[in-house]
Amino acid sequence: MSFHAIVMESPIGKLELQADQSHLISVQFVEDEGKADSDTDHPILKVAQEQISQFFKGERREFDLPLKIEGTAFQKEVWKILQEIPFGETWSYQDVALAIQRPKAVRAVGQANKANRFPIIIPCHRVIGKNNTLTGYAGKQVDKKQILLLLEK
């Protein structure tokens, strides 16, 4: 499968956006740009970069991008609910588990969050610990979660 990529600067670090011919396939935090050819002419990458930039400038609250969402049925269910969390609000992992009618699946919700290939766009940063702690964003990068939540306040 051939894909195109671009690396963009953001307030939470460098983001690599990847797309195939018809969909955005991932947004990833990257340390360096070594592996990505910047394909600034790819229409989906252009629009994705523009929308993410607008989000960081406070000009956009929702995204309108063709996402290639691949995962288990459970993960897709969690990611769908994440997209329903209103801008500027936070839910606990328990709230998400209850919203998908699986109250005991709190840990599994956390794992689905971790597997989200579209941070920012599918707002897993809006999910926090039950005691309002910022836990488990992009591995151990809770500082990114904090910046995103402050941006939305």
What order do the helices and strands come in, and which of them pair?
Layout: E1 4-8, E2 14-19, E3 24-30, H1 43-56, H2 73-82, E4 91-92, H3 93-99, H4 106-114, E5 127-128, H5 142-152
Helix pairs in contact: 2-4, 3-4
Keywords: Cytoplasm, DNA damage, DNA repair, Methyltransferase, Transferase
InterPro entries: MethylDNA_cys_MeTrfase_AS (IPR001497), MethylDNA_cys_MeTrfase_DNA-bd (IPR014048), MethylDNA_cys_MeTrfase_DNAb (IPR036217), MethylG_MeTrfase_N (IPR008332), MGMT (IPR023546), MGMT_N_sf (IPR036631), WH-like_DNA-bd_sf (IPR036388)
Active site: 124
Write structural notes for this entry.
- One of its GO terms (cellular component) is cytoplasm.
- It comes from Rossellomorea aquimaris.
- Pfam families: DNA_binding_1 (PF01035), Methyltransf_1N (PF02870).
- It catalyses: a 4-O-methyl-thymidine in DNA + L-cysteinyl-[protein] = a thymidine in DNA + S-methyl-L-cysteinyl-[protein]; a 6-O-methyl-2'-deoxyguanosine in DNA + L-cysteinyl-[protein] = S-methyl-L-cysteinyl-[protein] + a 2'-deoxyguanosine in DNA.
- Its EC number is 2.1.1.63.
- The chain is built from five helices and five strands; from the N terminus they run E-E-E-H-H-E-H-H-E-H.
- It is globular, with a radius of gyration of 15 Å.
- The chain has helices spanning 43-56, 73-82, 93-99, 106-114, 142-152; strands at residues 4-8, 14-19, 24-30, 91-92, 127-128.
- A three-stranded antiparallel sheet has the order 1-2-3, covered by helices on one side. Strands 4-5 form a two-stranded parallel sheet.
- Helix 2 crosses helix 4 (106-114) and helix 3 (93-99) packs across helix 4.
- It has two domains: 4-56, no CATH class; 73-152, Arc Repressor Mutant, subunit A.
- A hairpin with a 5-residue loop joins strand 1 and strand 2.
- With 153 residues, it is an alpha+beta fold.
- Helix content is 33%, strand content 14%.
